[in-house]
Amino acid sequence: MRRGLRSIKVPGLGTFSRASLLERRWWPTNHCMSQTLFSSSEDGADVSRGHSTGILPASHLRGMIQRGRLKALTDIEDAQIQPASLDLRLGSVAWRIRASFLPGPDSTVKSRIDQLALHQIDLTKGAVFEAGCVYIVPLLESVALPYRVAGVANPKSSTGRLDVFTRLITDRAKEFDRIEPGYEGPLYAEVSPRSFSILVREGSRLNQLRLRRGSPPFSDTELRRLQQEQGIVAGDADISDGIALTVDLTGVGLNALVGYRAKRHAGLIDVDKSGAHDVGDFWEPIRARQDASIVLDPNEFYILASREAVSIPPEYAAEMVPYNPLVGEFRVHYAGFFDPGFGYSGAGGAGSRAVLEVRSHEVPFILQHGQIIGRLVFERLTEPPERVYGQGIGSHYQAQGLKLSKHFRV
User: Fold this and answer.
1) Which of 28, 154, 157, 194 is the most buried (most CB within 10 A)?
2) Given this model, what pLDDT does residue 21 score?
């Protein structure tokens, strides 16, 4: 495009001024963008239909599968494709290793496994991952990402609620749960059950992958506008580098149930079976106290809920960021992804609370009702997804209050 050009005709859409194109983020700001303007991007998306940057929705993920950008040793199933993420599956083998690791810029994951592995485990018929141990599993999926597309992974909600610490690793990685733009190669999961031993097998889905094109900023100003227009949380919102969520320790009614604490030395949980276990065999109920507080004991795992109902608009995705050390000595939310449509009234989710996976660290820590325990950060999708959370895709946690994982009988 010439520097002096003030308008352009977009086929099928009309003529737009430069200012209008800039507002829609359709005007190229550098050479790389101009190469794909008004055409299919490398991930198979028609960028003229939406935004040139953002989280890729399900339709774009399908395009990447068709183009071989997302591959697998067995066909990727439609049930793996979520509104803005892809569920990843364990492969046929695992290694128990002495300690967690990152390969670093000069090593592959396999070379580090060869150094650290204690023994190899066959997952084709199922195997037990013992609490307190660390395992590395090659995933069935691999990627060949375009140069402007990066990945970020998180445990699935059900995985986090079982206190199963799961992180994605790639060859030459310097960070967990991150895939650099342009990466081509295998994916691995580090799996470390903390409270319960688990039964897994080839094809078990413990974590999920989001893909992001570019680095779209999302300012607090935009978040305030979204809160005003669509009501992400009810009432006044505390917005600063995301939207604050607080803990509910009063519940509803006298002696209300406000949380659960994982029992030590409990039984085995099959990660692929829903409604197969009794709550009382694995969890101790926590009732509301008169002073509306709870003492988090070191190295204990708790399930709590947010005081706020959360609503994620269909064009956006959110993530609960790790705890701020200035807030307290605890970690909140292993499984941080909130899908488009979670808690959204149009998808039957009005009143959905954020369920919080909480673990205290070195010292006992007192949580008070209404204390900030994390923040939701938002990102725009490149375009609205075909279906949102809760619309016929096997969503287990729409319209939830305080809720354990799907593995337990109601």
Assistant:
1) 157
2) 44
Q: Is 398 part of any domain?
A: no
Q: 162: exposed, middle or buried (C-beta count within 10 Å: 0-12, 13-18, 19+)? A: buried
289 and 240 inside one domain? yes
Q: How far is Cα 318 from Cα 312, in angstroms, rounded to an integer?
A: 7
CATH number for the domain harbouring residue 262:
2.70.40.10
Residues 6+ apart with CB under 8 A from 341: 83, 312, 313, 314, 347, 349, 385, 387, 388, 389, 390, 391
Model confidence at 48, pLDDT cuts 50, 70, 90, reads low
Residue recorded with tokens 């319209």: 399
- Domain assignment present for residue 245? The answer is yes
Q: Which pLDDT score, from 0 to 100, does residue 72 have?
A: 97
Cα gap 360→328, rounded to integer Å: 9
Q: Which residues pair with residue 261 across a beta bridge?
A: 284, 302
Q: Are residues 179 and 197 in the same domain?
A: yes
- Enter the DSSP assignment of 160: H
Q: 227-255: per-residue pLDDT in tens?
A: 999 888 887 899 988 999 899 999 887 78
pTM to 2 decimal places = 0.85
Average pLDDT, the chain: 84
122 vs 385: which has the higher pLDDT: 122
Q: Which of 174, 247, 150, 165 is nearest to 198 (CA)?
A: 165
CB atoms within 10 A of CB 402: 19
Residue 95 belongs to domain spanning: 63-213
Q: Which residues pair with 260 in a beta bridge?
A: 285, 303
Q: Please, what's the largest Cα pairwise distance for the chain?
A: 71
Domain count, the chain: 3
Q: Are residues 225 and 316 in the same domain?
A: yes
Same structural domain, 183 and 228: no
pLDDT at 195: 95
Residue at 324 is within a domain? yes
